[in-house]
Amino acid sequence: MILSNITTPLLGLVDTAVIGHLPHAYYLGATAVGAMMITAITWLCGFLRMATTGLTAQAYGSNNEQQNLFILLRGLFVAMTLGIVIVLFKESYINISLTLAGGSEQVQFYARQYSEIRLWSLPAALANLVILGWLLGNHQAKTVMWLLIATNLINLSLDLLFVLGFQWQVSGVAYASLCADYSAFFTGLLLVFKQHKKTATKLFDNTKHLLKEILNRNELRHYFALNRDILIRTICLEICFIFITFQGARLGDNVVAANAILLNFLLFISFALDGIANAAEVLVGKAKGEKNNKALHNCVTLALFWTAIFALLYSLFFGIFGSQLILLMTSINSVIDYAQQYLLWIVALPLLACWCYLFDGVYIGLMQAKIMRNSMLFSTFMVFFPTWFVLQSFGNNALWTAFSLFMLSRGATLAWHYYYHILKVINKAQ
Questions:
Q1: What gap in Å lies between CA 282 and CA 53, rounded to an integer?
Q2: Per residue in 375-429, pLDDT tens?
Q3: Is the separation of the CB atoms in 31 and 14 below 8 Å?
Q4: Separation between Cα atoms, residue 312 and residue 309, nearest integer Å
Q5: How far apart are CA 371 and CA 357, in angstroms?
Q6: Is 9 within 8 Å of 267 (Cβ atoms)?
Q7: Taking the CA of residue 263 as centre, how many other CA atoms within 13 Å lie in the half-sphere pointing to its CB?
């Protein structure tokens, strides 16, 4: 799962490196703003992946294959519907987003160019969240890994062809991602059908019953109730990331470009640590489905140990190689100098943030999204924004201080709830 997860931020790093070696900082800044506009939606709809993984893991634990496939089909229906609706209103979304983002005229121009292309990929991108969540919930992490590696290799190849070969600049990166999203969608559907051909064929033989189950009111109500809390949690996370990107754009082209590089480093760390969290999701969900409390707590304990080990390794890695990685990302001296001034935040963040990633996975597996929501609301509005407001005179350092404390607060509040509430229930049951 770690190998699967890091392919996504590695792709972002490659996108950044390809654009970062173009002659002007505004290309990189525009790509960061445009990508954030798309990422805002895919992260906002991250509940599609999380809910699918948790529900599928529990269906897998209870050995209910038919229910398992209905979870996939119901998720695909919701994802495709959301994607099509967003595409229909894409012009309004772009206009509002760019107004909020600010930035120079060049950043605005190229960010619009990027987002107008990328938004067409959303139906496939959102459906991919469901497919990946379903595969993970069914303990098919290796399939997910190869699917993501193949997709990202397509994206990488097209990046190099469109940007360096065809000289399409920012639009080249957008077209590469568009093609990669649809290739992942069709490949994922093919893999699922091949692995579950017999059960899928039975379901599709009775189309009326199939549609009735997919559109089952009670199931959809439960699905959306669960997703509502995950959605609120994700909105808070999105607000913080978007605020950093947009506020950076207001501080100048060099700031938003440097923050784009550092945020890509952070995404690499978070996706890598999420590999352990995703494993915890699946194993905790399976243990809950089997009603095995001992296995559940053992999984959490083991995952905490490996989270700490990997967080330390990532901190050491960026402490040793961070400056060289910045040089790989861009050749613009002003951006290099600015990014290196803030590299220490990336060195510290794995140790500060690793706990929130792990406990997010635990609570997704438990399907207790309300606890995740409450933790995120507290960390966003009682920690992130108050910290930034008090320290805003320190410019970019205020943003990174606020974000670091925000991540630490998420982990601390979830850990407190687990040890003072969930563990008490487990001990009583034993």
A1: 7
A2: 999 999 999 999 999 999 998 999 999 999 999 999 999 999 988 887 776 666 5
A3: no
A4: 5
A5: 14
A6: yes
A7: 29
